[in-house]
Every structure is written in C-alpha cells, then in structure tokens.
Design a protein that fits this description.
The protein is mostly helical. The chain has helices at 10-15, 17-38, 58-78, 81-85, 87-96, 106-109, 112-128, 134-154, 159-164, 166-174, 187-191, 244-248, 272-290, 294-300, 302-311, 315-343, 367-375, 379-397, 401-406, 411-420, 432-458, 464-491, and strands at 180-184, 202-210, 213-221, 254-258. The protein has a two-stranded antiparallel sheet with strand order 1-4. The radius of gyration is 25 Å and the shape is globular. The relative contact order is 0.12. The structure holds iron/sulfur cluster (3 copies).
C-alpha cells in the first residue's frame, strides 16, 4: 500500500487523466445540484418549525452533514485527498490559465484571509444559521463560485485555494498527521533528471486528422499549481494531490500511498498563519463540544453574555460577540497557561556585581512564534475531537440520506416524516451505548498520540523541558474539557 500507483487496476485508474477529469466533473455536478436544489427553499409554508429542511434538503444535508463531516473522516485516512477531486480547485487551475496571471501578494497567501473567512463563516452560522437553510447554503456556494472566477481571472494558479478555502487550510493541518503521501520513488532519479517535466508548464500542439481534414490544437501541459517540486516535498501541507506531476513525470518516479500516522510531525514547522488557523479551529471545536455540556457551555459563554448585557445588545449582538469570543479570545485563553510555561525558558537570572545597572535583555521570539511551536502537537488531539463530532453527527443523521436523495428539496420528505407520519423518522446507525465507547476510545487515542507528538517535537526544540510541560498542559486542558463533555453527555445521561 506504499505505492498505489503501481497496483494493478487501481494504479492504472489513478494515473489516468480521464479518471480524475470524470471524478472532478461528477463532484462539480453534485455541487451544482446542491445549489439548484437549495436555491428557492427556506421554509415550508404553513409549517411552524423554524428550520424544517435542515436534514431533509439535499443542499443542507449534503453540504453541512455529508460533506463537512465526511471530509474529517477522509482527512484522517488520506490527508488532502479531497483536494484531488475538488471541483473548485480544479476549475481554479483551468480558468487561471486564461487570466491575467498576476502573482498573489504575500499578505493574501499567508492564510490570514482564509482564517478571517472561517471566522466570518462562524459569525454567519451564529447570526443567520446558514447551515440550517437550503437557500442560504446555495447562495454561499454561488458566492464561492464568484470568488473562484474573480481570483482565477486575476491571479495565477490556485489563488482561490489560498485566499478563499478554509476547508483546504484545515486539511493542510490534518494532512500532517494523516498516513498518506505523494513523494518521489527514488530521489537519485530526480537528481539526474534534466527535464523536470513533472512541474514545468509547457505548450504543445496536438494534431487531429479526419480523413483529408486536419486540425491542430494548441494544448498546455499544466505544472504544479502550488509551485513545489515533488523531489523537495517533506511534508504534506502544500501538495494538493492534483496529480499533474504524476501525469507529467517522464521517468515514472512518483509514488502515492500510505505511511505511518504522524510520520512528519517531529520535523514539521507550523507557520504563523497555520497557527492562527489552528487556534480558531480549536475554539470552534471546543464550542461545539460545549453544546451538549450545559455547565461547560455556561462557563464558556459567560463572557460574551455579560458583555452583551453590559452593552445593551440583543440576541444578534450576543451571537456576534459569541462568534468572536470562541474563535479568537477563548482559544487564546485556553493556550495561555501552556504559553506562559513555555516562555519561562527565556527567564534568566543573572547576578551583576558592582554599582552599574545591567543593560536591557532583548527577547527575540514573538508571542506567535511560541504559539506555533506550542500548537503543533495539538493537531492529533484536535483531529480526534473533530472526528468525534463528525462520527456522532453522521451516526445521528446519515439515516436522512435516502430522504435527501429521493426528494432534493426536502419538502415532501419533511411532511411525510413529521406531519403525515407516512415515513418513519430516521434513527441512529449505531446505538449510543456502543457509540460512547467508540467516542471515548477516539479521545483517548487522540490524547495519547498528542503526548507522543509532544515528546517527539520537544526533542528538537530549545528549552525542551519548558516546551514539554507547556504543550502537555495545553493538550491536557483541552482533553480534560472534551472528556468531561463526553462523560456527562454519553455516560451520565
Ligand atoms: S484547497 Fe480548497 S478549493 Fe483548493 S482544492 Fe483543496 S478543497 Fe478545493
Ligand atoms: S519527478 Fe520525474 S520529471 Fe520530476 S525531476 Fe523527478 S524524475 Fe524528473
Ligand atoms: S507536487 Fe504534484 S500532486 Fe502535488 S500539487 Fe504539485 S503537481 Fe500537484
């Protein structure tokens, strides 16, 4: 399984240009179906439920349950594999060939816009509940298509992925622990390869002859959309698995396959942008856990509640403050004890003999540089916690899939299930008694893997002891909150 490209049948399929084209076209067709099926549907006239179509509509169910939750499961096993079939990334690559090809300014590519977009998405979930309404979901996708066209026309290569896709940014983090990679098979072969055909864009002519009629078409061989060379890849974060280099390599020197979990975590370096995104994601996952843990929810949301009362803001103001609180301040507060301990490594006690005052001691590391180090080993725990949310959601709601497929708008299915009772309400796939053990096992594995990651990463860091205890406090605090939730929610019901 280390090299799927050389397995019989599957290998031929994965190398086939048409296989990827057809898969991406199918993904595009499904995305368009989500838009069409959700476009005019918000409520059901005469039905008092505020969000009747949330699970029966193909648009809301497809995007917010099936895709978002399924993506976490896929990321656990195959990292950024979704990017290989993603219609947005594919169209971005195709359209940008015919645009102005402007280079992306550095400030746009540093993950800040994506993270701000993730925060905006959280605000819109709290304020408008876009995940509950098919028409809002459809409009969100249309907005993304507009952003896709504009970014493709203006900028070169995959600018949309870099500016507008929080999903890709989250997959980028999770791909660091996933047991799946694209690498060269033999670096010696690359060292002796002068063509570097794998990533170089090249125009060529194709000749089509129909009897006496001959048609010449100019084609372009696409290069690497993220400007990396397969020979230099040593972490999974940037490669979008577009498979261009696999198709282009003249020496059949690429490998796509499995590796041990967490293989690259010990030497990985988290950029500031990624650290900021992880921080926001931590806040969002923690807030999601608190939904089913009343004491934790009361505690976590006490600050925005009080602030809204002090400011005299109503529900919308409270939701806005809550979204900003859980995405920005709460995760910073959670990381603070670990941060303080880690920064103690800079503390030096020096005795100066004599009347002269000692000079200023400058600390070169910024707060965010330390934060990047601190957050790196939390990825396994965050992935496990995210996975728990996905498994629980899919277990509870996957039964709606036949309803969403049989009636794309979801109106008839809702009426049949909830008003007329002609169809049974979909139940859970696995009983809670069984699920709770799976959940606890996932959490424990995530925590243990995070501790293992702490030990691995600490061995290459300055101030090893401070780093170890700082990160341990950080992951233990998060794991404690999640464990408390799981026990109250699933074991003490
Ligand atoms: S980064 Fe986002 S838009 Fe780009 S290919 Fe991946 S999922 Fe698709
Ligand atoms: S991946 Fe293939 S084309 Fe690229 S440098 Fe290596 S051998 Fe050459
Ligand atoms: S390294 Fe290869 S698969 Fe990865 S993004 Fe570049 S061309 Fe695509």
């Amino acid at each position: 399984m280390k090299d799927l490209l050389h397995l019989p049948f599957l290998g031929a399929l994965l190398r086939g240009r048409w296989f990827w084209r057809v898969t991406r076209l199918l993904a595009l067709a499904v995305t368009l179906l989500v838009i069409v099926s959700g476009w005019h549907h918000h409520l059901i006239p005469g039905v008092a439920t505020p969000d009747p179509l949330m699970y029966t509509s193909f648009a809301t169910f497809g995007l917010w349950v099936l895709w978002i939750m399924g993506l976490v499961l896929l990321a656990l096993v195959a990292g950024r594999f979704w990017c290989a079939v993603c219609p947005f990334g594919w169209l971005n690559g195709l359209l940008s060939r015919y645009g102005f090809n402007r280079p992306l300014p550095g400030w746009l590519g540093g993950m800040l816009p994506i993270t701000l977009l993730l925060i905006a998405l959280q605000i819109s979930v709290y304020l408008l509940a876009i995940h509950r309404y098919p028409d809002y979901t459809a409009r969100l996708l249309v907005l993304l298509f507009v952003a896709l066209i504009i970014s493709s026309v203006v900028f070169r290569k995959r600018a949309f992925c870099q500016i507008f896709c929080p999903a890709g940014a989250i997959l980028k983090c999770y791909a660091r622990v996933a047991p799946f990679e694209l690498r060269v098979r033999d670096s010696e072969v690359c060292a002796g390869c002068s063509s570097v055909q794998c990533v170089s864009e090249q125009s060529f002519w194709q000749r089509y002859a129909f009897g006496p009629a001959v048609l010449h078409l100019q084609r372009q061989r696409p290069g690497c959309p993220v400007d990396i060379h397969p020979h230099q890849i040593d972490d999974n974060s940037d490669c979008t698995l577009c498979m261009n280099c696999v198709e282009n390599c003249c020496n059949d020197n690429l490998r796509l396959g499995f590796r041990p979990w967490l293989a690259e975590l010990s030497h990985a370096v988290l950029g500031r942008g990624e650290a900021f995104l992880l921080l926001v994601l931590t806040g969002m996952v923690t807030a999601n856990f608190s939904k089913v843990n009343v004491p934790l929810r009361e505690m976590l949301f006490a600050a925005p509640k009080k602030a809204a009362i002090l400011l005299g803001w109503q529900a919308d103001g409270y939701f806005l403050l809550s979204a900003l609180w859980i995405t920005l301040l709460l995760p910073l507060l959670l990381a603070l004890p670990g941060m303080i301990l880690y920064r103690l490594r800079f503390m030096k006690v020096t005795t100066v003999i004599g009347p002269d005052e000692p000079g200023q001691v400058s600390v070169k590391h910024s707060l965010f540089a330390g934060l990047s180090d601190l957050l790196l080993p939390t990825i396994p725990l965050l992935l496990a916690s995210h996975l728990i949310l996905a498994v629980v959601k899919l277990n509870a709601k996957l039964g709606y899939l036949p309803l969403a497929l049989s009636d794309l708008s979801g109106v008839k299915s809702y009426l049949a299930v909830h008003l007329m009772g002609t169809l049974p309400q979909p139940g859970v796939l696995v009983s809670i008694d069984l699920l709770k053990w799976l959940v606890i096992v996932l959490l424990v594995i995530g925590y243990l893997l995070a501790i293992w990651a702490v030990k691995k990463v600490a061995s290459g860091r300055d101030g090893k002891k401070f780093y170890f205890w700082g990160t341990l406090i950080n992951i233990s605090l998060l794991a404690g909150l999640y464990l408390d939730t799981v026990i109250r929610w699933l074991f003490l019901r």
